[in-house]
Amino acid sequence: xxxxxxxxxxxxxxxxxxxxxxxxxxxxxxxxxxxxxxxxxxxxxxxxxxxxxxxxxxxxxxxxxxxxxxxxxxxxxxxxxxxxxxxxxxxxxxxxxxxxxxxxxxxxxxxxxxxxxxxxxxxxxxxxxxxxxxxxxxxxxxxxxxxxxxxxxxxxxxxxxxxxxxxxxxxxxxxxxxxxxxxxxxxxxxxxxxxxxxxxxxxxxxxxxxxxxxxxxxxxxxxxxxxxxxxxxxxxxxxxxxxxxxxxxxxxxxxxx
Length: 257
What we know:
The protein is α+β, with helices and mostly antiparallel strands. The protein is about 20% helix and about 35% strand. It is built from 5 helices and 10 strands; from the N terminus they run βααβββββαααββββ. A 10-stranded antiparallel β-sheet has the order 1-3-4-5-2-7-10-9-8-6, covered by helices on one side. Strand 8 (about 230-235) and strand 9 form a beta hairpin. The longest helix is centred in the last third of the chain and has 15 residues, at about 195-210.
């Protein structure tokens, strides 16, 4: 097995460079303020959605174009609570690849280890590498979301400032804050990171009180534009983010540990 280098074509089993990180109180505060999540809600526990951002940062050295690696989904599993400020190492590898008409789907698996080498969390990043001639188009069924049995648990009003603030660690991912870049790939406006909706889902889990072990998986089905208002809905262990047009943007599921 070998480590991936810039410019490499992805192969199943390819290792990623180790990524050193920590979720500090200040870092978590910046993400939560951008996502309108109460800063005190998580106490001294690290929000897994921040570590999900680290799975993107760990792969950034392989990114070749602004749209190389559109985020399609994420899964994070907490094996034991991570405290704010703990030094962590992400060890990742390319898990699965699948070709489609417009590009290649890929899944990358990560283990999050503490300073003693113990696994504290696991992550899976699912993304789509768009072919150069392809354009971004909304995914999922183009019909209103069936709200039967769902309860609204939050409402989020996005703004350009909040969307840009959430992407503060990704200044080169200009599709999140540059209208001209968004237009070049067929988007009417810049879009929020998919992980912004993942953070909203983590807020729901935190409001219920954290179990020591759990997993959250999410699929990012349609773009969330920086001027939208969305609803966060819940039905048991299922979560959904629905736009003001009534259509599904992201779906998620909470799994017990």
